[in-house]
TrEMBL record:
Record's keyword annotation contains Lipoprotein: no
Record's signal peptide: 1-22
Source superkingdom: Bacteria
Organism from which the protein derives: Paracoccus alcaliphilus
Gene3D superfamilies per the UniProt record, alphabetical: Glycine betaine-binding periplasmic protein, domain 2 (3.40.190.100), Periplasmic binding protein-like II (3.40.190.10)
One GO location term (cellular component): ATP-binding cassette (ABC) transporter complex
The protein, known as: Glycine betaine/proline transport system substrate-binding protein
InterPro entries: ABC_choline_sub-bd, ABC_Gly_betaine_transp_sub-bd
Length: 311
């Protein structure tokens, strides 16, 4: 069986839209979804956690690297994942497809992008395309700064280096977490630096970024234009239709995520506190997310969420 599309998952959820909340209460009280350590997913996970808590569920959000997180979903150790970036993570989707136990609940974000970029000093050095990098190797110290080990984007960079594409065969990929990478960019000052950059992310406001053209083969067209998808175990969707319906309707946008991520990264807010504040400021979004969703004990969901965030 192949991974269901968002339409297929919606049909499944529709078929399961029965008064089965008693089963939800006994078997679905804890909802497990992983965090790969990326602030955008931390932000959306924070929103999901606030909503679930207000509905009477208990969110369980372990921090797992991208490869480990996909294995956890495939092996039934987690229930949902809100961070399936496509096309960057297509290989993981292909693996889940072959496994045949995962459904796509919804495309939760459009307008994202993810590719290599340079800081202002790099742009001032004349780098605007992947093909411009090697001529400025010494200025960049021959290093490309990536994110956590095992991330698909890092694998794409390493494959590019090993194939000596764009003359980058003697360059080095520096793997680290998101925050360590951005700290390196901040420390660079007037020195050129090339690194992974993406939107949504407050880095786009804090750093003068030039996204590099020419990386279509490595990251996809339109500067690594991407969509983000929510995946879930089919067995969980069948057993927990109320919680699954929430996730199938939980759709975000780039401006929203930029705000949430800025509050987390720049203001030091707890992700759930940031989410609760944003939801209180934007109560109109709750109705769409909670349409037809109840609390775990069968009460109207939207009213419960709005009451919780106003406290």
């Amino acid at each position: 069986m192949k991974i269901l599309t968002s339409t297929g998952a919606a049909l499944l959820l529709s078929a399961l839209a029965l008064p089965a909340l008693a089963d939800d209460a006994s078997s679905c009280g804890t909802v497990r979804f992983s965090d790969p350590g990326w602030t955008d997913i931390t932000a959306t996970n924070g929103v999901a956690a606030v909503l679930l808590t207000a509905l009477g569920y208990t969110p369980d959000i372990p921090t797992l690297s991208v490869p480990v997180g996909y294995e956890a979903l495939k092996n039934g150790q987690t229930d949902v994942f809100l961070g399936n970036w496509l096309p960057a993570q297509q290989s993981f989707r292909d693996d889940l497809d072959a496994h045949g136990s995962i459904v796509e609940l919804v495309q939760n974000l459009e307008g994202a992008k993810f590719t290599l970029a340079v800081n202002k000093a790099g742009a001032d050095a004349g780098v605007a395309d992947f093909a411009d990098l090697d001529a400025q190797r010494d200025a960049f110290d021959g290093k490309i700064y990536g994110i956590e080990p095992g991330a698909p984007a890092n694998q794409s960079i390493q494959a590019m280096i090993e194939a000596d594409e764009f003359g980058l065969g003697d360059w080095e990929l520096v793997e680290s977490g998101e925050q360590a990478m951005l700290a390196q960019v901040s420390r660079s000052g007037s020195s050129p630096v090339v690194f992974l950059a993406w939107a949504p992310h407050p880095m786009n406001e804090a750093i003068e970024i030039t996204y590099l053209s020419g990386g279509d083969a490595q990251f996809g067209p339109d500067f690594g234009g991407a969509t983000v998808h929510t995946l879930a175990r089919e067995e969980w969707v069948e057993a927990c239709p109320n919680a699954a319906k929430l996730f199938s309707q939980l759709i975000f946008d780039v401006p929203m995520e930029n705000v949430l991520m800025g509050r987390i990264l720049d203001d030091g807010m707890d992700p759930q506190d940031a989410a609760k504040e944003w939801i209180a400021e934007n109560p109109d979004r709750v109705q769409g997310w909670l349409d037809g969703v109840s609390t775990l004990d069968g009460e109207p969901g939207a009213e419960a969420v709005l009451a919780a965030v106003e406290k």
